[in-house]
Amino acid sequence: MLLPQTVALKDGSQCQIRACTIDDYPAIKDMLQTALMFDDTWDSEVSVSLMLQQDPTAILVAVIGEEVVGSIYINVFGHWVYFWRLVTATAHQKKGVATTLLKVAEQLLKSRDIPEAAIFVNDSNKALKKFYSDRGWQISGTFRSLWKKV
Question: Is the pLDDT confidence value at 1 over 70?
Answer without folding.
Answer: no
